[in-house]
Amino acid sequence: MQTGKPPHLNHFDYAGFHRYSLTFCTDQRRPTFTERRAVDLVLSQIVRASTECAFDVPAYCFMPDHTHLLVHAVAKYIVDNPIRAKLVTSVKDYPYVGSLVCGLDDLLASLPPKSG
Fold first, then answer.
1. pTM for the predicted model, two decimal places
2. Residues 50-67: what's their mean pLDDT?
3. With CB atoms counted within 10 Å of each terminal CB, which end of the chain scores lower, N or C?
């Protein structure tokens, strides 16, 4: 199991929107994802998190001892942090949120609407 923070890549621009390929291994690489029930349980949590945090999962694959996810669009979760922390009721009222690639109004317009 990898612990700690991996080093930043020298030649990668972390600003803006990106897709990330994530791999999650089961505990001690046990073949947990060989039954539909286990896959459905984990997949339901991925769906819940992607809905709550407004990121997309364009592709996933469950292997017996790990799963691969392609994820993107986590900006809504990031800019809504001051609201969840009850610092403001509108992100426009919080002075320390923004984007290095576009204005705040453009960023907010690009995000999915609030659900429910």
1. 0.56
2. 87
3. C
